[in-house]
Specification:
This protein is α+β, with helices and mostly antiparallel strands and about 400 residues long. It has two domains: about 180 residues, Ribosomal Protein S5, domain 2 (2-Layer Sandwich); about 160 residues, Alpha-Beta Plaits, CATH 3.30.70.890. About 40% of the residues lie in helices and about 20% in strands. The protein is built from eleven helices and 13 strands. The protein has a six-stranded mixed beta sheet with strand order 5-4-6-3-1-13, with helices on both faces. A four-stranded antiparallel beta sheet has the order 10-11-9-12. A hairpin with a 5-residue loop joins strand 7 and strand 8. Helix 2 packs across helix 4, helix 4 runs antiparallel to helix 5 and helix 8 packs antiparallel against helix 9. The longest helix has 25 residues. The two termini are about 30 Å apart. The relative contact order is 0.19. The chain binds alpha-D-galactopyranose.
Length: about 400
């Protein structure tokens, strides 16, 4: 999930930046860092995006539907091939490099585990891998619910692809990245983050069926923007709370005698939910109603109906807050502040929850005012300076320079 080891990504969030394009350009930075370290220009620069999920939260591991957007915050790698089968990567956020041989991949420590795990998963699926060396930098804040770990995995996979050149099938690569999380790192995450970091498209959200992994591009309604509102709060024990939700959903699907909650209709749920223990009933209700909202949201987007999309986003937040219980005081406040601003169609927490970011759908022309107002009001109430990003839907993991 969105939890690479401490120190990954940006330094502590203490500024309001209403347009992250004014931040130092990572492309230039990574080229310079590579040149300083290796004495020449990189052979390749690759990058993979973070994501914001518009709706469809905690539905992916229930074989359900999700509607994420790849955003223009990235993990970048500048690299060149090596001929000795070794991988050697410096992260600008850690003193310890990732360094290992492709001939014997064993477990390492910290952020390096993601690099080793991706190599292990790709090799396991039969991709021939060549070694490489390079420099990595990310502007995706860590633990914020914006999928910094999936971006790390997909950028590493793109780096292997750049030096080895097999057929790049985004969904297959996303599955390898998920295998890294599930089997190498031991996290029970779903497929959403890897799918969108691999398959994102400029200007679009992606409706993903997490059972068969089919997907459909859906355009963002005209004259709207996605604004990501980072509460500047991070929570511990997120992994165990996540795993607990996964187990509770399993109890519910077993009760209904189906492979996953995706298979339970609202009608069946309503007819039998009284037999469930109240807590399991609430968890199941969130997943079942959220799947329905996600499909409706995709239709609303297709019709350019920002009002309905915003209403569905807000209803999704209430369900995550009350039924799934993965929100937080700060997230609820951020959502309420956003919802009450002129030009906001809807807002909700995004990602795994318990801290991190909310996302708002806002009329494009008011976004700078919206961002400024929300930041001021939030800080007044909570005393923390939020970080605000006006995001542009972007492409999935790609080669930027060769
Ligand atoms: C995390 C996981 C995803 C998904 C979301 C909740 O981001 O990595 O697979 O389950 O939480 O929607």
């Amino acid at each position: 999930m969105n939890n690479p080891p401490p120190g990954f990504g940006n330094s502590p969030i203490n500024t309001t930046n209403t347009d992250h394009k004014t931040m130092p350009i990572p492309h230039q930075r990574i080229t310079t860092e590579f040149q300083n370290r290796f004495g020449e220009s990189p052979a390749f620069i690759v990058r993979a995006p973070g994501r914001v999920n518009l709706i469809g939260e905690h539905t992916d591991y229930n074989d359900g539907f999700v509607l994420p957007v790849a955003i223009d915050l990235f993990t970048w790698i500048a690299l060149r091939p090596r001929n000795d089968g070794r991988v050697h990567v410096h992260s600008l956020d850690f003193s310890q490099p990732a360094d290992f041989s492709l001939g014997e991949i064993c477990h390492g420590e910290g952020w390096e585990e993601y690099v080793r795990g991706v190599a292990w998963a790709l090799q396991g699926k039969g991709y021939p891998l060549r070694g490489w060396e390079g420099v990595l930098v990310s502007d995706i804040p860590m633990g914020a619910g914006l999928s910094s770990s999936a971006a790390l995995e997909l950028s590493v996979a793109r780096a292997f692809w750049a030096v080895s050149r097999w057929d790049w099938q985004p969904t297959e690569i996303a599955l390898s990245a998920k295998k890294t999380e599930n089997e190498w790192l031991g996290l029970q995450t779903g497929i959403m983050d890897q799918m969108i970091s691999a398959n994102g498209k400029d200007g679009h959200a992606l409706l993903i069926d997490c059972r068969d992994l089919s997907s459909r591009l859906v355009p963002l309604p005209d004259d709207t923007a996605i604004v990501v509102l980072d509460t500047a709060t991070r929570r511990g024990l997120v992994d165990s709370a996540y795993n607990e939700r996964v187990s509770q959903c399993k109890i519910a699907s077993n009760f209904f005698g189906v492979p996953a909650l995706r298979d339970v209709s609202l009608k069946v749920f309503e007819a039998r939910s009284g037999e469930l223990e109240p807590l399991i009933q609430r968890r199941a209700r969130h997943v079942i109603t959220e799947n329905a909202r996600t499909l409706q949201a995709a239709e609303a987007m297709q019709a350019g109906d920002a009002i309905t999309l915003g209403q569905l986003m807000h209803a999704g937040h209430i369900s995550l807050r009350d039924d799934y219980e993965v929100s937080s005081e700060e997230l609820n406040l951020m959502v309420n502040i956003a919802q009450s601003q002129p030009g906001c169609f809807g807002a909700r927490m995004t990602g795994g929850g318990f801290g991190g970011c909310a996302a708002a759908l806002v009329q494009k022309q008011v976004t700078p005012v919206f961002a400024g107002e929300v930041a001021v009001i939030y800080k007044k109430h909570i005393g923390l300076q939020p970080h605000v990003y006006i995001c542009h839907p972007t492409n999935g993991a790609e080669l930027v320079e060769e």
